[in-house]
Amino acid sequence: MNYESWTIHPDNFIRFSPTVLQTNNFDLSKDLQHLIVQSKNTSSNSPVEVIFKDFRLATLTGIFQTDSLLADGTLNGVFIINDMATQPNFTTDLSIKNLTVNGDTIGDVHAIIDNTKAKVFAINIALTGRGNDVSLNGNYFLKLGGKSSMDLVLDIKTMQMRSLQGASLGNIRDSKGHLSGKVIIGGNMVSPDIHGNLEFFQTSMVITKLNSVFKVDNGQILAIDNKGLKFNSFTIKDVKDNRFTINGSAFTKNYINYVFDLRLRANNFQPLNSTRADNQAFYGKIIFSTDMRISGTEKAPVIDGRLKLKEGSDFTIVLPQTEPGLVARDGVVVFVDKDAPVNDELFYSVLDSLNSTSIFGMEVSVNIEIDKKASLTLVIDESNNDHLKLKGEAILNGGIDKSGKVTLTGTYELDEGTYEMSFNLLERRFNIQKGSKITWSGEPTDGNLNITAVYTANTSAVELVQDQIVEAKTDLRYRQELPFEVHLSMTGPLLQPVLKFEIKLPKESLIRIGGEIAAQIEMRLQQLNAEPSELNKQVFALLILNRFTSQNPFESAGGGINAESMARQSVSKILTAQLNKLAEDLVSGVDINFDIVSSEDYTTGTMQNKTDLAVGVSKKLFNERLNVTLGTNIVLEGGQQNSASGNLGASNAPNVNIEYLLSNDGRYMLRAYRRNKYEGIIEGYIIETGVGFVMAVDYDKFKEIFRKKVRNRSGRRVKTTDQTESKPETPPLNEPEKKQSPVINNERKDEDEN
């Protein structure tokens, strides 16, 4: 049975006819499970007992369902059939221990049904255990012609929400809280008469596809009567206790067909917090406010109102791919029609899911407003993770007609955003320019793009102009790095946009370099943008190599290695180390640090070496909780760099860094700083001022970040480690103590600050 071997008593028989059913020793068993069918005596009209002993429900459900875990539990009890020859009736006394539905244990069920009285079924069913206490008692009166009636009482003293999870077929998880209430069920199956209330007590659940928490607080009541379901300010809360309120009724006479008169209102409600694992077509975080009305019937609902996507929303839509690709190798052979178009099902099935809904007869008209701080991501090429991340304002109208067709009209005006593209291991980010927009006038996938995005490549113009200007190879002014911009224009249909490139140099950069060089570079860029083949080559070079390429790619005027520069930088490191060694014990209680940085400068048209000396002094106060660092940069060589950039003397402005440890172990720290930084020819020296909060975590394994520290016997806080971890090596004796550098110089890497 169910593909498993069972044994049966060798001395068994079943005799049956239209008026006789007689069995003997029919004992079907496997391990401790028994299914016994046995007549009470040898008479032709003897009652027949069907006895279950430690019988698993999964054995029965597995016969009808491939998933044997649909329902499980241990069944014990007896089902007795009486008066087979005259007026058949039955009685049952069955119990199910640890009833499980889809892997979730509900509790214990005890069912007693007595049909000894003709056409009357006396029902007594109880659910207990796992925090549940539910009973159904009463009578069901069987009558011909559809006039059967009920007189039942459903008494829900406690029904745990987690017990309902299994019945949701995986659509609900992480349920908490419980229900209580009493419902009186009368009338008949065609027109039931139901009265009662269901009250919620600290209930919450997660809708799996949405991955968002929905909560119902104490005192929320769902009223039920012979007219249907009534909602009186029935409030659902999200994870941050923002409210979604339902008012109105769902009228019904048979609890199958409904007429709606509902009003839904919400403010900053979060119904969606999903990832790609939850839904591959669309996912993310949605926060909205709404005021909607629902009317019509369950077959033809009418939804009208407004919806505003609020700040904090970050929603991703994966556009269907026009070419199928290999997702995984599962060892499954699939036979396909080779005469069919290669992309007919893979492409259009996803496309239809975005442009239509499986619910027909619905009429929806919703005014949609998008806050300028809400983020929308369109995944254009999922295999390469090419995507548009957009922020802006929109006023749209979304609709669904009775055929299930989805429409969207309006304009999405973009304030900012990025277009990120990948090429093998390289990733490039284009910044979307303000004024770009997406316009819809039909299906959501039929949007029209008008987007301009810019990628900035800091490089020299030598390879760009050396084939037209001979002296570019020798005139070192062309070696100066400039912020060249690659403009990407995306126009046309959303699914098949037209891409166009253009290379520009910002006007402010042209003004700063000025003179003949600026004119020559601008003229060369105009020529380049008029030649698509050459333009595409240079765009490719800027995106991949972050530089221009000459007509002869093996000749590169700006790619050589300057041996002197390399030597100077190495010497700078040696000098820095020696100065720091001399300063270690210069002043007691004060840390002094030096740093020498060498670089090259082409601002004047000739190569000049630029050398800066950074000096820093650090002092710890208040039991080493407060650390004050003062530093400055002194130009030793190439000082005219300051005047060329317009920030004369800025390099000598002092650097200040103040750090205060909020905790003794230094895990949490406040920082205030003022830094003098050199940002290149255009910006020159700038002064950056800010404050930050720093959290430092010391860990050997990633999971240790979230593990609490414990105290050893001496009271000292130490990290907890796995027993399987090896003991750390003992540091060698007389190892010099590492000193923290107090210098804040131009070349220092900024730390992450939040």
Short description:
With 754 residues, the protein is mainly β.
Write a structural description.
With 754 residues, the protein is mainly beta. Among the domains are: 142 residues, no CATH class; 110 residues, no CATH class; 125 residues, no CATH class. It is built from 8 helices and 39 strands. The strands form 4 sheets. It has a 29-stranded mixed β-sheet that branches. It is elongated and about 120 Å long. The C terminus is likely disordered.
Topology, element by element:
Blueprint: E1 7-8, E2 13-17, E3 20-24, E4 26-30, E5 33-39, E6 48-56, H1 57-64, E7 71-82, E8 89-101, E9 104-114, E10 120-129, E11 132-141, E12 149-160, E13 172-187, E14 192-207, E15 212-216, E16 221-225, E17 228-237, E18 243-252, E19 258-274, E20 282-296, E21 301-309, E22 314-318, H2 344-355, E23 363-370, E24 375-381, E25 386-400, E26 406-423, E27 426-432, E28 437-442, E29 448-459, H3 462-465, E30 482-493, E31 498-504, H4 507-513, H5 515-529, H6 532-544, H7 563-583, E32 591-601, E33 608-621, E34 626-637, H8 641-645, E35 655-661, E36 668-678, E37 685-695, E38 710-711, E39 717-718
Parallel strand pairs: 21-23, 22-24
Antiparallel strand pairs: 1-4, 2-3, 4-5, 5-6, 6-7, 7-8, 8-9, 9-10, 10-11, 11-12, 12-13, 13-14, 14-15, 14-16, 16-17, 17-18, 18-19, 19-20, 20-21, 20-22, 23-25, 24-25, 25-26, 26-27, 26-28, 27-29, 28-29, 29-30, 30-31, 32-33, 33-34, 34-35, 35-36, 36-37, 38-39
